[in-house]
Specification:
The radius of gyration is 20 Å and the shape is globular. It is α/β, with parallel strands linked by helices. It starts with a strand and ends with a helix. The protein contains 15 helices and eight strands. Strands 1, 2, 3, 4, 5, 6, 7 and 8 form an eight-stranded mixed beta sheet that branches. A hairpin with a 6-residue loop joins strand 2 and strand 3. It has two domains: about 230 residues, Thymidylate synthase/dCMP hydroxymethylase domain (Thymidylate Synthase, Chain A, 2-Layer Sandwich); about 100 residues.
Length: about 350
Amino acid sequence: MFRVFDGATADAVWCEMAYAFRNGEGVSQPSRIGEMREILHSAMSISDPTQRWVTSREPTINLAFALAEVVWIVNGRNDSAFLNYFNRRLPKFAGFGATYHGAYGHRLRSNIGIDQLQRAYEVLNAKPTSRQIVLQIWDGRIDLPQRTGEEISSDVPCNVVSILKIRSGKLEWMQIMRSNDIYLGLPYNIVQFTTLQEVVAGWLNLELGEYNQISNSLHVYERDLVNVLRSHPKPCATNTDSLALPKKESEKAFVELADNIEAIINPSVSVNSLFSLFHNSKLPPAFKNMLCVLCAEGIRRRQRHQALNDLLSECTNLIYNQLYDQWLVRCGIGDDSRQAAIVR
């Protein structure tokens, strides 16, 4: 029997899930990294995938990391340094090598010998009624455990496949997950795959349909349960940016963002150079807002906190302002009093 969660926004759906665990749902199960509470066989649906940000999680998500990961995925990368700069704890969960075994973008764009996003675009452009667009992330050749039960890697993909269909002029997206951590993984997974949905819809000049997801194991680790229990719905700004562009423009923008991130993570690049990088960018406005947050995080990590507000004042997406302000509070350098003004 499926446990179903649905709502208009990612935050509303995530809060439903948090409430379920707060209300005692889930069965205790052992795992390789500790006890967890699990809801077996769950489904979720978000009717407006553009509202992809979970703002009610306590403590807040790492916005810059989420944006960098989107760029990393769309560009088909698997190098670890690109992400580790924005999330220093990531190697603890995904491994300490130069590349990440389960990198979603690499899996989608080159791992099986074809660019699956490119093929999906070509097929749906030629035959919008196709029901055969299944994007393979899981690869049994390299992901199945050893015969002894030992995991093959610390970074085995939780996402298994993506299924795309066009219905009534809208791109519908179904994501299938073998395992889904509501606290650590889900807020970022929603961002990753609703963004891919929006990007591919832009390539095809389509509107967005619903984002749907099936999780065979929706869970929270006991160590994180206290944070889920104290997470409650809060006022939320609206995402006003669209990342939907024609394919050529879209690919160009994501490549430019990746090049900019290489500069941000380079310790020899100065704060003044990051300001110049942002101000000289000709990226479309939605992409420039992403760059603004990423440059701001580069400035924060260079310990130039007084320069942050000058840059962030140029970000026109209020949800980014809200989430990044929450992030600064989490880092001990922000001011909670700005939040009410942002979400009005």
